[in-house]
Design brief:
alpha/beta; three-stranded antiparallel beta sheet; 5 helices; 23% strand
């Protein structure tokens, strides 16, 4: 369209956004590609954060440069002007785009904690802060019995923590796997010493 900026802008430098940027090159797009990520580090895989806590890069800055992808770390998307085809950044910059991919991911739901030490697990910084508290004998409550919650529960139990998983649904991983698979996973965690409580909601923290 006349007047439209030629760049393809991707908001979110996680697995989806980063893979999409490289896929554009693989599919023959030779115009500008801008990858904007809220975190200061190079793109990395998130699944290991709930298992080993290790950082596994998706790529390094050299690979991004070689592919001709303009990477903007520490850049949070703050607004979107669809009429003008502009992505607004938290630092005041405006990125005009030809096409835009929103790959910003999800945010953890937070509960009122009343000052209790409550952690969420979405980023490398979250993982580091949580790992620093997982010591033998420490009591840990994991709210949510999905994949991430169970991976974290298993990791905490292996470090010697006393772990309780609290799941509102009638069984673990209710939206992800069949009941028989969930039952196998539940038994593995119980064998590892994890206390699993399904059908249990959280009304407050003290």
């Amino acid at each position: 369209m006349p007047g439209m900026a030629p760049a393809i802008v991707i908001a979110g430098a996680g697995e989806c956004g980063t893979r999409a940027a490289f896929a554009l090159r693989e599919e023959g797009w030779d115009g500008p590609v801008i990858l904007a990520g809220a975190e200061p580090s190079a793109p990395y895989e998130r699944p290991p954060l709930s298992k080993t806590g290790e950082l596994k890069p998706i790529c390094d800055s050299g690979a991004l440069r070689e592919a001709g992808i303009s990477f903007l770390p520490g850049t949070e998307a703050a607004g979107l002007d669809t009429a003008a085809h502009v992505l607004e950044l938290a630092d005041g910059r405006r990125l005009p785009y030809r096409s835009l991919l929103l790959a910003t991911g999800a945010r953890a739901r937070r509960l009122p904690s009343g000052g209790a030490p409550v952690h969420v697990l979405r980023t490398r910084a979250d993982s580091a802060a949580l790992r620093a508290r997982l010591r033998p004998g420490r009591r840990v409550a994991v709210i949510g019995g999905g994949f991430i919650g169970l991976e974290l529960a298993g990791a905490a139990a292996s470090l010697g923590c006393a772990v309780t998983v609290i799941e509102l649904g009638p069984r673990l991983m209710g939206r992800a796997v069949p009941a028989r698979v969930a039952a196998v996973m539940a038994q593995r965690h119980i064998t590892a010493g994890v206390d699993i409580r399904c059908g249990t909601g959280v009304t407050g923290l003290a």
